[in-house]
Design goal:
Elements lengths: L1 H13 L8 H32 L2 H28 L2 H25 L4 H30 L4 H29 L3 H20 L17 H10 L2 H16 L3 H12 L4 H23 L6 H19 L4 H29 L5 H12 L3 H15 L1 H45 L4 E4 L2 E4 L10 H10 L4 E2 L4 H31 L1
Parallel strand pairs: 2-3
Antiparallel strand pairs: 1-2
Helix pairs in contact: 2-3, 2-5, 2-6, 2-7, 3-5, 3-14, 3-15, 4-5, 4-7, 5-14, 6-11, 6-13, 9-13, 9-14, 9-16, 10-11, 10-15, 10-16, 11-13, 12-13, 12-16, 15-16, 17-18
Length: 503
Amino acid sequence: MTLTKLRRSSTSLRRPFRSLSVPNYRRYFAGQVVSISGNWMQTVGEMWLVLRLTDSATAVGITTALQFTPMLFAGAWGGVLADRISKRRLLAWTQSLMALPALTLWMLTMTGHVTVLVVMALVFVRGSVNAIDNPARQSFVMELVGRERVVNAVSLNSLIVQSARIIGPALAGIVIATVGIAPCFLLNSLSFGAMLIALWRINPAELQPAHQASREPGQLREALRYVKRTPELSIPLGVMAIVGTLSFNFQTILPLMARFAFHGSAGTYAALTSAMAVGAVGGALAVGTRRRVGPELLTAAALAFGGFGLASAVAPSLGSEFVLLAAVGAASVTFAAGINSSLQLAAAPEMRGRVMALYSVVFLGSTPIGGPLAGWMSDAFGPRSALVLTGIAALVGGAVLWSSLIRRPAAAAASVQLHDVTDLVEAVDQPLHVGRRVVHREGRSRRRAYAELAHQRLRAVMPGSHADPLTPEDLADVVGMRAVERERDERAAVSRSQRTVHD
């Protein structure tokens, strides 16, 4: 019994990390940890440099916005590229190019020629490359691990980001306090080497690549139409647009909370970021134990995100802020990783790059709107007001998810059951017509939308057929009738051949 319990415990402990059993993903994971930690060092250094040069919350918000403006306008095109060419090759190019702005900022800061306009320009350049890099990285996960492990792999990617948010800002705080801001940029430029080595070591034969889309006009419009007609994609993306714009602005809010709410230094900023990341690591590990992500989890995570966000806005001390930000981190990463996983699983393979690009647009590309808004609110009413907006927006997102994915389908299902009873009584004496590959039943349910699944199954059973949408109950009759017809035709053919032989 004890041995069985130990084995179960061992399996439970390994479950959040099962994607690491894939060698290619293991290499990718290691490269990402180093590269993203360096990126967070760069981000902390940039924000603190702008704050030191201007002492303006609005300037910090504008700098954050410039980093993500290219994602807003060009991120979807990055997804088109990710669907057209090898994601591994594309990532090698983008990771190499992203090292150049970091090196330039290091040299200018070291020589004393840096200005706030130069910082903003280089932040914009880095964001432009990231608009191509991010959709490729998001959709590359499925090629590394396959469908069965994608939820776990996405949660581990979130774990990478959150671990980097602990390591990067902590290192940045130490570096800034001891030797200054400039080395943060140099270390980030060197960190891209780890990602390039990981990409080089990935075995292409073990990848599960999606079919590459050919170069055709209208591919972006095609993706938008595809998302619009697929509720499993449009609803999560719509909610992420709200929450991404108004709630995920911590790069703007946290340095302002450190400086103006708690009168701290760069070390305080790094500590707030790390506290939030510690909670986020727990959230990522919790999501990693799941194979699927349902609407209940997404709704609960959004509501928890909003509640803890409001509580952090009124935290009376730095210690209580650490605790509440850890809870915000856990809820926010559960929400973001859950949306990411659900989109990856719902999207068709040939559309995945473009769908994940739209996710990047609404999650990261919305920052040019939310970042300056958070900065303006912090200037006008104090940084705590921006956290109030964070909490309210997340609560609204949770309410939309509950209404669209939980309450409305449940009510509709109950209504369909009542209508089905009436329809069965009305249709019991009605004939079933099958002929010339056109199938329908008189007296069918008025809830046609809920018969689409049966329609799809019918087309799978009878290739080339077209049909009025059927209820699942009708489908069994149709398939059975088709089998009877096939058996009758076969008997007739045998009878004709026998008569021919006798003649």
